[in-house]
Design brief:
Shape: globular
CATH class of the largest domain: Alpha Beta
Strand order of the largest sheet: 3-4-2-1-5-6
Number of helices: 5
CATH topology of the largest domain: Trna Endonuclease, Chain: A, domain 1
């Protein structure tokens, strides 16, 4: 029997999947996941997205298959802002953008312009997802601006409302 879905093991940092034709094709077409020591690692956001798209089955370390709700509960324990980040990730992916983590830059995500894959060119934006009810101080806002400026990327604030809709604001430096 030929497998039609990826099978992954849940770990706190994400999901690990064996290198196989399905994972390789998914990576080649959409840059989903990262190759690490002969295996593919998917972020929590990538994993839920693939689970919702019916392309991934996730197992616990005890080999129990996790439902979407079980996975979501575990992801929220690891990252209290997981749902807000996921909504932004899902929205950007559904619009045709490649979205990768940007923790090493001090941001939540880096986003590549349409048609650009990581390795072909640099990301265009660093993205910070925020719920509309959260307060962002000028200090926080300034820090996010510095991150985008120092990485030579545009700052994209992704505001998630109570209906889980996302509105984007691109912040740019202007010299008078």
């Amino acid at each position: 029997m030929v497998k039609s879905k990826l099978e992954g093991i849940f770990a706190e940092e994400g999901i690990t999947v064996e290198d196989n034709p399905i994972s390789r094709t998914l990576y080649d077409k959409s840059r989903m996941g990262e190759i690490n020591r002969g295996k593919f690692k998917y972020s929590l956001q990538e994993a839920l997205y693939l689970l919702e798209c019916n392309k991934l089955i996730i197992f616990s370390t005890t080999n129990k298959e996790l439902t979407s709700d079980e996975f979501l509960k575990k992801a929220r324990k690891i990252d209290k802002n997981f749902w807000i980040r996921y909504l932004v990730f899902k929205d950007l992916r559904s619009r045709g953008y490649i979205v990768k983590t940007a923790l090493k830059f001090g941001a939540d995500f880096r986003v590549y312009d349409k048609g650009i894959k990581p390795g072909e060119d640099h990301a265009k934006w660093v993205v910070f997802p925020v719920h509309e009810s959260n307060t962002l101080t000028w200090h926080d806002f300034s820090a996010k601006n510095r991150v985008s400026h120092s990485t030579r990327k545009k700052l994209l604030m992704a505001i998630v409302d109570n209906e889980d809709d996302v509105t984007y604001y691109e912040i740019a430096w202007k010299k008078p």
